């Protein structure tokens, strides 16, 4: 690889979409080490930093310092943004463009969820490669995506690329939880992250039944609606030597969990999910699966739709994901009760994390259905709102999120994502999709900025289950091909051919 010569455009730019608050440095020639352009090498380094977020942020500074050095070696202006929480920091790199178009922001989080280290087969922070898969907390979500995107950009810079816009790479903190994530950054440093479009995590690259052959490439244009419920039961507190089975808070909440666990919310198809499932039916090599999808899409009654949806879930190689794209989901995540082994507690609580489909079943409708289901279980179903928020205020806020339209597809970033899919994965179909989880896109969506998401590597269902679980991993070959994909995406914005 040669020396990068990226022109003389300042970070303020010279075009219509210059940002006066951008760094004033110019990109100078810099020899970019081959290791920094190697997504596997870069991902191993990222994984070696323990950035676990236990709910109140993590220690992201050492990881940020490492990436800062990567950008500095490439001659890219970069800065660490401190938050009020020590060592919980954001990193912003800005590749200057001509300013002819509005900036593109690449949004990738550095924090990861905690690990149950005793349940891993390898060290979750060693970046070990086993049988063609790289293991580590964050390998899939989302240090792998960060590595692919950053490595691809560095390849362009090494070739002397000039882009028609500034490209901002934000490696943020507190995406998994905490008070100083993208919303805090937008409130305090919007000038540094103001952009015309955003690319983050989201869309899955699916495989055929062999788990490696690309089947369908997706980019998400909408996130599910995130909300929580608490199941709360009360009973008589007394000595554990004299239990009162009919008045036990733990027994009551357990029975409610059992009933809710056996229940599913109704299927709701939206324009976004219909388009996705239609593309999936065309893409799969499994004729039975394709037939089930088409039956579901053509169903005239809710009963027929539910029956077909059950068949879709049963035949899918990604059953839990596809279940989540069809209905509001509820997951039992935290239980709290008791404090001493010889005391029967007076209260038991179970947190239920829910994800609703925008334009499908409203969260308030789901809450009403759960309350109706559990009306004879002697438990209270509590909507968990923000601090100081009433239930109606929380539901009204969720109504607004539910009604947020999907990102516009008539953008140059969307076209770049689509064209890159054809260039990299040849005849594999590409389609927009709904993200079953959530992202940090809120501040940009609130301002009408289009945002999309990809995890740029073909994955298996087993790898998908490892997301936020044990033995998180991705295929090395898929990471390398995904980096080629991101190289094609960013190539759409070069001015030098």
Helix content: 25-40%
Number of strands: 19
Largest sheet features: 8 strands, mixed
Any low-confidence stretches, pLDDT <50, length ≥5? 1-15, 18-26
What fraction of residues sit in β-strands?
Answer: 15-25%
Termini separation comes to 18 Å
Question: How would you describe this structure to a colleague?
Answer:
The protein has 15 helices and 19 strands. The strands form five sheets. Strands 3, 4, 5, 8, 9, 10, 17 and 18 form an eight-stranded mixed β-sheet that branches. The model is unreliable at about 1-15 and about 20-25 (pLDDT under 50). It starts with a strand and ends in a 6-residue tail after the last helix. With about 500 residues, the protein is an alpha+beta fold.
Quick description:
The chain has helices at residues 39-47, 61-73, 143-158, 182-193, 249-261, 271-283, 287-298, 302-315, 319-324, 363-373, 391-402, 412-425, 442-446, 461-465, 476-491; strands at 3-4, 30-31, 78-82, 89-95, 104-109, 129-130, 133-135, 167-172, 197-207, 214-223, 225-234, 238-239, 329-337, 343-344, 347-356, 380-384, 430-435, 451-459, 473-475. By secondary structure, it is α+β, with helices and mostly antiparallel strands.
